[in-house]
Amino acid sequence: MKTTDLMKYLKSVLETEKNVYVLTQATNKLRTKIDRLGNEGKERLKELAKESSALVVSNVTERSSAYKLLRLLPFIGMAVGALFACTIIAPNAYAPTSFDRTMNYVVSIPLSAGVGAAVGGFIRWVGRDKKKISAKKAIKASKIVNAEYSQAYNEAINSDSKYLETINTKSNMQKYYNEMMDQLEQTKGVLRKLYSLDILHASYRNMVAVASIYQYYDTGRCTTLKGHEGAYNLFENERRMNMIISQLNIVIEKLDEIKASQFALYSAIKDGNRKIDKLIANSELALDYAKATYKNSEIIATNTDIIRQNTSFLSMYEFYKSMF
Q1: For residue 295, what pLDDT band results from cuts at 50, 70 and 90?
Q2: pLDDT greater than 70 at residue 181
């Protein structure tokens, strides 16, 4: 194959790889938007229900803790009374003999402890929470809150015109998505046919390798694919020396870093990203205004361009197929 013919072939393959990249990324992003569309209110409702339930449980926990403290008040009063008798009453009471001093402790400690227990019991009785909620009732209250929010949500979506507009928009965005998915499958088919010509070795049938090999030919660094000075060998040497990045996901993350060494790939990804942004921006415009201009959209324009390229590349495929 002549060098000029090979360069045309490589450029066609690179363009087709770029179209597959654009449609794959755009459909993935659009699928995410479609799945989220109309669910924001519902998700927020669930959050509010959880928050409300948490408040109920927290309130129950606080009441339960306070009640437990009230139950301990008689014992606390008893301990305080006994301590008061040991440190204040008994040591300071009149006791001319050691027997009297002992009796002071024997008499004052039980009496003071009893008084303390009585005081604690009285406080417990006065401060008890007659509206204490049990854990079982808390769970029931939580379910009631969730049910109330669920009912409010159902009423809202049945009466809210914006929600209905959102559903219509979602339907139109689904049309966008289906259109792009059809084009993606067709473009993948074109790419498979171009590769099936076996012009390129199977190891180099990917976007990164094709872009690099095309750049070698375009800049005059290679005039053949095989051999010591061929494009395959040059690609392997640069990859082994870490002069180029050979994994597409890393290329996407570090796109600006490859501009000098892999300009053809950089340009293809950069142009692809611009197309992806236009496609997604068009779908967001439809979302914002709750209407989709399906017959006059960036998506249709992009798909039309891809159809044109696919038709052209299929003609090229038939031409090269006849040569082998």
Answers
A1: very low
A2: yes
If asked whether residues 22 and 51 sit together in one domain, one would say no
Three-state SS letters, 146-161: HHHHHHHHHHHHHHCH
Residue where a domain stops, chosen among 158, 177, 197: 158
> What pLDDT, on the 0 to 100 scale, is given for residue 234?
96
Do 249 and 141 fall within a single domain? no
- 179 and 152 belong to one structural domain: no
Q: What is the pTM of this model?
A: 0.60
* Average pLDDT of span 20-29: 92
Question: Is the domain of 148 the same as that of 165?
Answer: no
- pLDDT of 274 > 70? The answer is yes
Same domain, 299 and 274: yes
Q: CB-based burial of residue 100 (10 Å sphere; 0-12 exposed, 13-18 middle, 19+ buried)?
A: exposed
Contacting residues for 308 by C-beta, under 8 A, at least 6 apart: none
Rounded CA-CA distance 72/80 in Å is 12
Burial status of residue 174 (CB atoms within 10 A of its CB: 0-12, 13-18, 19 or more): middle
Phi (first) and psi of residue 87, to 5 degrees = -100, -25
Same domain, 170 and 262: yes
Contact assessment for residue 299 and residue 282, using Cβ atoms and an 8 Å cutoff: yes
Show the DSSP H helices in 128-262 as ranges. Answer: 135-159, 161-196, 207-218, 231-240, 248-253
What is the pLDDT, as a whole number, of residue 289?
43
* pLDDT tops 90 at residue 217: yes
Longest dimension (CA), the chain: 131
Q: CB neighbours of 207 closer than 8 A, spacing ≥ 6? A: 14, 17, 18, 20, 21, 248, 265, 268
Cβ count within 10 A of residue 24: 17
| Integer CA distances (angstroms), 87 to 73, 95, 99, 184, 249, in order | 21, 15, 18, 90, 78
Q: Average pLDDT, stretch 12-23?
A: 94
Q: What is the pLDDT, as a whole number, of residue 78?
A: 72
Q: Residue 203 has what DSSP assignment?
A: G
What is the span of the domain harbouring residue 117?
43-158
